[in-house]
Amino acid sequence: MIIAVDGPTASGKGTIARALAAHFGLPHLDTGLLYRAVGRQCALNGGNPDDPFDALTACAFPDSLLAEPELRSEASGGLASRVSVHPEVRQALFRRQRQFALQTGGAVLDGRDIGTVIAPEADVKLFVVASVEARAARRFAEMRATGRDVTLDEIAADLAERDARDTSRNAAPLVAAKDAVTLDTSHLDRDQAVARAIAIAEERVRS
Ligand code: DC
Description:
single chain, alpha/beta, Rossmann fold, 5-stranded parallel β-sheet, 9 helices, 5 strands, 11% strand, binds 2'-deoxycytidine-5'-monophosphate
């Protein structure tokens, strides 16, 4: 069984994807982390994330980079969003994601284009959304908990900028697959969102 979980930054898709993977006993891939690694490697190379050649060169990042805590930062998220507009980068990361999706027994992948490009045949497709206000408040709480000095306004502005870039790019923009079920987590806490996602997935699997 392949489960695709797509949605914008801080919508709760990562939490939901991890919980679905645990529930169904499937391996999970956070595909955003791959783009974050490319963005970070590009910066380490002294490259320009808006330049397709520099971004493509950074796709040869070492796997050890995926374990770096710095990849979780807002700065890495911004770099990831910039390198991810290049079709060359998306192509370079395609095989790795596709192979993960097709492994025996199935998998859960979360990202932006899993249900539309990476695994259009997925058995379950969730499109997780939440208002900018709800997402900014969550991210703000996370950042403050890790001691980062940011304001709510800065986070909201950053989210809005990344949403605009992720949805308006030509290559595999963030868009719900036609057969995806939309789950709005704006007014749900973690447990409610996870319970709803599991119920949707189980219903899809039964039908
Ligand atoms: O999910 P995330 O915030 O870690 O993703 C970081 C950036 O990577 C996001 O702004 C867009 C890009 N991305 C993408 O283009 N396609 C994916 N499947 C996953 C992430």
